Amino acid sequence: MFLLQWQSFKTTDLKTDACVASSGPVPAHIRHALNMVHPEVIAKYYGCGLVVPECMEACQVLDLGSGSGRDCYMLSKLVGEKGNVTGIDMTEKLLEVARTYTDYHTQAFGYKAPNIRFVQGYLEALNEAGIEGSAYDICISNGAVNLCPDKKPVLQEAYRVLKEGGELYFSDVYSSGRLTEEIRNSNVLWGECLSGALWWEDLMQLAEEVGFSPPRFVSGAAIKVFNKEMQDILGDFKFLSATYRLFKVPRGAGKPREVVYQGGITGMEESFSLDSQYTFKVNEVVEVDGDVAEILTRSRFSDKFTMLPPGGPSQTCGASPKVRSTV
């Protein structure tokens, strides 16, 4: 019932800005890939904004809640012919739209064969949909985790299917506390992407229980509620639309290190922002905490960084990065 209501929504129906895309700048290579996606795929896509991690060439990517396939086809272009994209969604009608345009995009991208597939299934049970374990470099999700009442199985399945060093990069809505039953059971608030919001502290706890390294906060924006009736139901709860990145690397195993970004990431040739705390400029030495050192050593970013010999001054997690130039 909720799904049908959600698919009939228009942006003008919304009473909050939780499901309205950010107006921030889109890098040129991403904009180019998005412009190549077939108009019908875009028209029937119900996601919000863009969720595009960096350094995706030749990666194996899984889109959790792929809908009509807009993000999948964009990612298909970004990973290149040597990469692969799988989209999973529970709604067969949207998957039919996505599958209709596989050949169209294969030809538009100049590929000899498709590098994309779409499967029907649930995010809490990827194994039942035939999604293999330790098979993907990146899992992305654009607001779909919000629609799953039980978030832990979703994170567990994402962790299972990721390779060692892999990443879950996802945007969703978070709340300032655990929501009441009244809020969680409201159909209207589900449609506004608020009833399924996870308390941000629960995300930290769930990530630890599943095995991910501590979530890295990338960006976020406070959500505005325009409707007085909704404001009364929500009370003092505040909501944030935020992007986090979680890595499948050992938690607490790393030590503070000094690193140097060598460049080479498409669209980030001069500087690369891992999250809201760390931005790396080419040839600049940055001291990172142990968790980030593990990420940069074990993930797909490893060949973009030089790890300087250990033994320098230590840094506690959460402190401002120390930098110096190597030039």
UniProtKB/TrEMBL annotation:
One of its GO terms (biological process) is toxin metabolic process. InterPro entries: Arsenite_MeTrfase-like (IPR026669), Methyltranfer_dom (IPR025714), SAM-dependent_MTases_sf (IPR029063). It catalyses: arsenic triglutathione + [thioredoxin]-dithiol + S-adenosyl-L-methionine + 2 H2O = methylarsonous acid + [thioredoxin]-disulfide + 3 glutathione + S-adenosyl-L-homocysteine + H(+); arsenic triglutathione + 3 [thioredoxin]-dithiol + 3 S-adenosyl-L-methionine = trimethylarsine + 3 [thioredoxin]-disulfide + 3 glutathione + 3 S-adenosyl-L-homocysteine + 3 H(+); arsenic triglutathione + 2 [thioredoxin]-dithiol + 2 S-adenosyl-L-methionine + H2O = dimethylarsinous acid + 2 [thioredoxin]-disulfide + 3 glutathione + 2 S-adenosyl-L-homocysteine + 2 H(+). GO terms for molecular function: arsenite methyltransferase activity. Its EC number is 2.1.1.137. One of its GO terms (cellular component) is cytosol. Residues 58-211 form the Methyltransferase domain. Pfam families: Methyltransf_31. PANTHER family: ARSENITE METHYLTRANSFERASE. Belongs to the methyltransferase superfamily. Arsenite methyltransferase family. This is Arsenite methyltransferase. It comes from Gadus morhua.
